[in-house]
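Thread: "does anyone have the structure for this chain?"

Original post by V.I.:
We have the sequence but no experimental structure in hand. Need at least a predicted one for the grant figures.
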Amino acid sequence: MGLLALVIIVLGATAGLAITLLLPTQYAARTLVEYNVSVENASDFLRTDRNLTTQTVLMTSRAVVGPVADANGISADELANRVDVTLLNANSVNSEVIQVDVLNPDRATGVKLADAIANQYLTVVKANSPANYIQSQLDDARRQLTSAPAANQPALQARVATLQGQLDTENITGNRATIVVPAYSVAAPAYPSATLAAATGALLGIVVAGLVVIGLSRRWTRS
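Reply from O.Q.:
Generated one for you, tokens below.
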């Protein structure tokens, strides 16, 4: 019975490997984005974790994947399902580095999609940043200053100076997102995994072998 069980397990592992040959190979394109939390919030670990977790959710939001999907002729839902976002850990503590993997059967297309997602993410972060809001207020104040009566100019000049100071401070201490590793194709195929398939097949083989052994044992006991 031991030999029979071994044969069944080997057949299960072999079947698992054979299945991988029938499935389309998917490759992972990877990029790393760093999201620096502002100096003001950096000492608050709970707030920092919330901030970073929010960024991982934003990375697969429609605001990020939607424009990329439209530009590449696929649906936003399909693209979002191909994207895996991970907040990397350093010494069991969340770092500020976000790993973005995009699965695609073609390596070059995957790299293109990963790069586009990272850049669209930066665009969304910048558009919703305090610095962008302050910049818009500063631009408006400067426009008003060019055509304002002389009596109103001192107040507008003071407002311009205040807004410029706020913008400088925000640019130095505020949250910032940058691409630290441009998109590249991971060497090993991401899916299907031959090792996992073989292990799964072997596990099923063990279950089947166990059932067969139990059935044969009962039959021999009765006889």
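V.I.: this helps a lot. Strands lie at 27-36, 83-90, 93-104, 176-185.
O.Q.: and The two ends are 17 Å apart (CA to CA).
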